[in-house]
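Reopening this ticket.

The earlier resolution said the output was attached, but the attachment link was broken on my side. Pasting everything inline this time so it's all in one place.
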Amino acid sequence: MMTSLGAIAVLSPAHGPAPASHTAHAAVPALAAPLTESVDWAAIAPAAIPAALALVLLVADLFLPPRRKQLLAWFTVAGLALALVSLIPLRAGHHATFCRTDLTGGGCSYTADRFTLVVQVLVLGGALLTALLSAPEVEEELPAGEFWFLLLASAAGATLLPASRDLATLIVALEVTTLPSFALVGLRRGDRLGGEAALKFFLTSVTATAVSLLGVSFLYATTGTLYLDQIGRTLGHEPGQLHTLGKAGAALTLLGFAFKLAVAPFHFWVPDTYAGAPLPVAAYLSVVGKAAGFSGLILLTTLAFHPYADTWGPAMGVLAALTMTVGNVGALRQRPDSERSAVRLLAWSSIGQAGYLLVPLAAEAAGRPAGYHVGTTVAYALMYAVVNLGAFAVAALVTRSAPAGRLTDYRGLYGRRPAAALALAFFLLCLAGLPPGVIGLFAKVAVFSTAVDAQHGWLAVIMAVNVAIALVYYLRWTALLFGRTENGQEQGMAGTVGTADGASGALAARTPFALAAAIALAAVAGVVLSGAPQIVLRYAEGVLL
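Inline output:
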C-alpha cells in the first residue's frame, strides 16, 4: 500500500501535493498509458500470412487423406501469392509499428519502408517459386505437412527480417528463418547424405548465432539500447573503454552474419549442405536465405554501425574479394562427371555471387551518406534471385531422369528438351553477364561502378578477373546443353535415356505442371528484366536514404 501511494504521489502535479480525489484521477491516465502503439496489421500482413498459413497446413495435414495431400502445395502457393498482394497497400508510404511511445527519434521494432518492401518482394517471390519446384518432389518423396510448414515458417522469418529495426527482433527473425532450414535439409527419410548436410549446417549456424548474441550483448552494454537507429547515434560518442567494447560488439555481430551468409573463409558448409539437401531446398537457401541474411547485414552496417564504417568498410572489401575468388575458383574446379557436380557448381557459384553482393557494402565507407550504395546490392540480389532459381528449377527437372546430378547429364539436353535447354542457357548467360542475359550484365556493371565510385580500384580489378573466371564454367555448362555423345545419342542417367527398364524414360517424358510453371515464371521475369533492367535499378536506388 505504501509503495502504491508513493507511486501516485510521484505522478501528481509538480506544485505540491494535490487533494486525494484529484491525485487519484490524475494518476489513472498516466498508469494506463501504453508503452507501445497499436499494431498496424496491414504492415505486418506479409510476414503474418505465411506464419498463420504454416500452422493451418500443419493441422490440415493430420486430417487429409494421402491422395489429397497435393492440395497443401497449392494452398502454399496461394498463401504466398496473397502475401505478395498484401505488399501493394504498403508501396507508397512509410509504415512502422511496435513503437515505443516513451521514446523520441526512433524506437520502432518493425518498419515497412522502401527497403523492406523490395526485400520482401524478393523473399516471397523466391519462396513462391521454391514452392512450385518443390511440389513434385514433395508429392513423391517428402512428408507434405512437415515440408510446407517448415518452408512457410522459414519464409515468415525471412519476410520479417528486413523490417526488423532492433537487434532482438533481428536475431529472432534470423533464427526463425534458419531453424526450419535445418529440418528441410535433412527431411528426406533414410538419406544419410542429407542427415550429414543438416548436421553440418546446424553446427555452423549455432556457432554463428552464439557469436552474434555475444556481440549484441556487448552493444547493449555499450549503448543501453537495442534499436538500430539509436545505436547508430550512440556509437562513436561513448567513453574510452566502452568505445572498445562497442567495436568488439559490432565485429562479433558482423562475424556471426558472415557465417550465416557463407562469406569466405566461413563458406565451408555450403557445398556439402546444398549437395545433401533436396534440390528445391538448396534453391531456397541459395536465394531466400541469402537475401534475408544480406538484408540483416545491410541494416546493421548502414543504420547501427555506420559510425564505424572506416573500420568495417575495408574489411568488407577484403571479404568481398576473398569470397568471390574462392567461390569462382571452386566452381571452376568441379569435375563434370562427379556425382552432384551440377548442384555443387551452383553452390560454389552462389558463394562467388555473395562476394559481388558485398562490394557495394564495402563502398559504404567512402564518405557517402549511410545507405547510398545499398540499392545496388538490393538490385543485384533481385536479379540474381530470378535467374538462379530458374537454373535450379531446370536442374530439378533434369534430376528427375538423372538422379546422380552430374554435369555430363546435361549433354544433349537440347535434343531431348529444347525449351528447358534454352531456358537453362539463358539463365547461365544471365549469371555470366553475357547477352542475351542483359539483366546479369547490368547487375555486374552496377556493382562494378560502386567500387569505382568509392575509389576501390583494386576491388574493381579483382571483380573483373572473377567475372572472367566465371565465364569459363558458365559457358562450359552452356556448351554441354547443345553437345552430343560420341555415338550420337543424348546422354541420360546411365549413358542413354530409357535404357534400363523404361521407367527413367517415362519419368523424363513427364514434366510436372508446377515445375514447368516455375521455369516459365523465372524465364519470363528474366526476359522482362533483361529488356528493362531499370525497373529494378531505379526502384532499388536509394532504398535506405
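Reporter confirms the inline version is readable. The longest strand covers residues 95-99. Residues 192-223 form the longest helix (32 residues).
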